[in-house]
Structure formats: C-alpha cells, structure tokens
Amino acid sequence: MKRYILYFILASLLLPHLAASSSKVSVKNLRLWNAPDNTRVVLDLSSGIDHRISTFSNPDRIAIDLKDARLSSDIPHEIKDNPFIKRFRYGQYSKNITRIVIDLKKPVRVKSFTLKPNNVYGHRLVVDLFDKYTATAPKVARSAPKHTGIVTVAIDAGHGGEDFGASGKKKTREKKVVLSIAKELKKLIDKDPALRSYMTRKGDYYVSLRNRTMLARKANADLFVSIHADAFRRSSARGASVYALSKRGASSETARWLANKENAADLVGGASISDREDAVAGVLLDMQMDKTLEFSISFGAEVLKEMKKIAKLHSKTVQQAGFVVLKSPDIPSVLVETGFISNPYEERKLKSGKYQRQVANAIYKGIKRFISNEKTAFMTPPSSGKSKN
Ligand SMILES: [Zn+2]
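Above: query sequence and zinc ion SMILES. Below: predicted holo structure tokens.
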C-alpha cells in the first residue's frame, strides 16, 4: 500500500514536467496595447515559454523566437495605424524554433518579459516596443516652478492595458472605472480658471508607477491624485479610503533621491546641493519630504471629508502606506480608493456614471478647500521661500 502511495506521489511530481517538455506551447492569441510612447505586444500562451528576441535593420524588424511553440491560426498578420508596426510574419525557423517577425516602421528599443496567469489572462509573453531615439523615461528635472497662481493637478488613473486592477463579480474592471472618474475630474478642473489638469494615463494602456510620478513632475504638477478601487477576499468589505505616503516610504525615497544629486538639487528650490556635504543635502531633502507629507495628509483629509458625504468610509482618517506613486518628494500626493469593486453593492455604484461624477466632484472640492486653506504655501519649496519674506 505504502509503495503505491509513493509511486503516486512520484508520478504526480514527474508527469507535469514530462508532459510540458514533450508537448508544444500553443500561442493562442496576439494582442496590442497602444500608449502614446510605446506599443505593447502580448502573446497569450498555454504555458510558460522560452524565447529570444533579435533586432535587425535594413529593413527594421525584430524576430521573436519561441521554443517548441505552435501558433494558432487566429493570430493576426495585418495591422492598421500602429506607429511602430507594419505587419507580422510567422515561420518555422528550425525544427523546434518558431519565429514571429515584426516588420517595423522605424527602429525600436525592445523589452520583453513573461507574465504568470492572473484572474483575467493565462501565461503571457510581453514585448514592449519603444522609439529607439527617445529616452526610456521622461527627464526628471523640471524647471523651477514659475507660479502664475494656477495650480496644476496631476490626475492618475490607476492600472491600464494588461493590468486590469481589481475586478468585481460582474466583471467590472478597476482600470475602466478609475479612468472614467479621472475624466470626470479632468472636466471639473478644466472648467475652473484657477486650476489646470494633467492626466498621467489617457487611455487603456499601462504606465509604470515611476513613470506616473515622472510625468507629473514633467508637467509641473503642484498636486497629485491617484484614483483606484479596492478589492478584498471578503465581499462584505466596503467603503472609500484616502492614502498618503508612509513615513518609512518617505525616508527610503529620500535615500534614493540623494543617490542622484542632480535630481536632489532640483527639489530644494533649485539651489545646487551637489557641492554641499551629503549630511546637509540629506537634511534639506528630509525637510522637503516632511513638509510635502504634511501637505499630503491635510490634502487627503479634505478629500476624505468630501468623500464622506457621498460614500461610506472604510477608514475615517487618512491612511498611510508606501505606495510608489505617492513618492514625489515635492508634490503633495494622495491616493483615493473610491470603493470596493469586490462588494456587489459598491461594484454597481462604481459602474454608474452618477457615482463616478460624485467621486470626481468630491475630489475636486477637496482640492479646492486644500488650496484655500493653504493659500499656495505648498507650491513654494521650504528653502527658497524664507529669505524673501
Ligand atoms: Zn488599484
């Protein structure tokens, strides 16, 4: 009896591996996500895959070599209106290598990686194409803010593209709900002559977390609002919450910025700190971070007050966590969890245009009250304001 059990265990350990090596990985689909500065090609696979990417010029093209793969007949050859891609070609490169050739309109920089299954998709191979001659990320430095009194608000709709965020029982996707709320907020802000908006994501594509903060910086944002919807195993969990950066998240970020003094200099009122002692630069940056965090919390509190009027609150005070998108050292930043998409009642609400407009309006009013409370103190770096008093 015991021996049978042992065989059974051995067989169940070995068989999946044997099966994987002898059968082919099927490439079921090829999908594209277009962002303003890149195109993401996604291959849907039946299991994990070995791949290699090569780039060629004259004419510009890339080859994706897949080991032991079988291509479905559904995958496309032709493609319309893509800034990078002319067409796809497929062929058997050698006995066990299948090659996908992407004919390009211009030279690209390529990044590829595989993704494990999630609640929406199975195994995937992701190939990102960027313009070869533009930088990976927007330049970090921004010109010293010349304030005309108009406050620029960066609106950050969470997730996008391959990243669906949370989803509800009725398949409501966080990425879609939060983009709708973001667009409503943009409308309100653009109608207000004292404000200006900037969207870190304008459509259904993914923007990395660091890029979101850098885009906001590049747009000279004075405030940053990230919009999300929660999910939890327990479907009874509900309510909205507002987050600011945690103290620990702030200090690890100070260290990161200090590692690059060019960036750090930009944060303390444009005064160069590259020729100062590390300790001094550290103190200045810490001061900046502390001040920003203080503003973030009072900004969050105003948004929370407004959210309370339209939704049940999950937590009654501003919560703090190490969210990467909240790490700008000099832009007061909050993240609004607009409700639990995993709660059927709140899923229905989040999907409705009415609630989306109410949330946008609550955030807008929070922004307005924060600005009128602080006047524009939050727009002036601590080290440059003092001497001119
Ligand atoms: Zn989210």
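The CA atoms of residues 29 and 44 lie 5 Å apart.
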